[in-house]
Amino acid sequence: MKFYLLSFLLSLSLSTLANDKIIYGEDNRHDVYTYTDQSVVELSRSTVALVKKSDIRWDGKFYNIPFQSLETKMSLCTRERFFNQPTAAFCSGFLIAPNKIMTAGHCIESLDDCEKTAFIFDYRMANKEQYFGKFPNIYLCKKILGQTKNNSGVDFAIIEIDEEITDRTPLTLGTNLEIAVNDPVFTIGHPSGLPAKITDNGHIRSIKYNSGYFVTNLDTYGGNSGSAVFNARTHEVEGILVRGDTDYLTIDNRCRSSNRVGNQEGRGESVTLITQTHQDGIYGDGSSIANDDQFRYIWFAWFNTCNEFKGSVFRREVPASYCRR
To answer: Which residues lie across from 234 on neighbouring strands?
Structure first.
């Protein structure tokens, strides 16, 4: 992935979109409506597309996103999968609390970036020919609760949105305590700005604990930045997709085609360890969120709030006195 994506955030330019991720072995991207594991489909409801506010239109009843097809936007070869689908998102994200979204730090670098962004649920295909292009609600940035970007390390942002989500379940954050090389993982996000794709059959290739990330062979592209990367066994979020190899190659100076390598080839796709966020005051003491039935109370420095967990699952914000016992 190209690391300097501010221009991508502001302009969604072709040059930036075309240099982010890759296909490893078989293409394991799936439209949500085709996916048979309903527990994974349910997780997708808690993921979001990041879209420029300036691209959104209100028709008096719904928010609409005008779009170009992926073929037109990226000058793709017509044999490419999803070439006729719309491309509208510049990054991905996911719900971690009723009013908090996590994404990659390079997707939202400043309050100005945040205020120019809309967070949209259910940007996905309804069937092979139709996508959900009208949205009854969009969510906007209230403030940035924490953000860091290290082009060779930890990369994340936490956004407080303008209202609480009551009809979707925040995703469960893992502890990274039991992950290992070759463990199976999957992700849900918006490759090249497309409607949501579930990308499965990935595995962890290496873990760089000292640098705060692990490497996978997931088939991800520009636009997947900020996607939740799930442990395929537990369905907990183990990390945030942040960077990777080159997406597309130009064929005979005519059109672009997905870059394809073997499962163990290429540089791999880097994923910030979810527990690295707590070191900056986002998640709290990792020892306080053991997977048991105890209630835990964790002070979030950047949130300036006390938060109640049951095991590793966020429940609610509570009075500060709960964290001062």
So the answer is: none
HSE, side-chain direction, 13 A CA sphere, residue 26: 7
Percent share of the chain, pLDDT over 90: 51
- List Cβ neighbours of 103 (8 Å cut-off, separation of 6 or more): 50, 91, 92, 93, 94, 156, 157, 159, 225, 226, 240
Tell me which amino acid residue 225 is. S
User: Which CATH number does the domain 1-282 belong to among 1.10.1740.10, 2.80.10.50, 3.40.50.150, 2.40.10.120?
Assistant: 2.40.10.120
Query: What local confidence, expressed as pLDDT, does residue 311 receive?
Result: 63
* Rounded Cα gap, residues 113 and 98, in angstroms: 22
pLDDT score of 34 more than 90: yes
Rounded Cα gap, residues 70 and 17, in angstroms: 11
Q: What is the mean pLDDT of the chain?
A: 83
So what's the pLDDT on residue 282? Answer: 38
Identify the pLDDT of residue 301.
65
pLDDT of 181: 95
Round to whole Å and give the CA distance between 126 and 31: 9
Q: For residue 55, report the phi and psi dihedrals to the nearest 5 degrees.
A: -90, -5
- Domains of the chain by residue range: 1-282, 284-324
Strand ranges for 109-195 from DSSP E: 117-121, 134-135, 139-149, 155-161, 184-189
Work out the average pLDDT over 21-32. Answer: 82
Q: What is the DSSP letter of 81?
A: T
The secondary structure element, H or E, covering residue 305 is: strand 305-310
Q: Which residues contact 185 (CB under 8 A, 6 or more apart)?
A: 202, 203, 204, 216, 218, 229, 230, 231, 232, 238, 271
Residue 281 to residue 171: CA distance in whole angstroms: 19
Q: For the whole prediction, is pTM greater than 0.85?
A: no
Q: How many angstroms separate the CA atoms of 3 and 19, rounded?
A: 10
Measured CA to CA, the distance from residue 79 to residue 45 in angstroms comes to 30
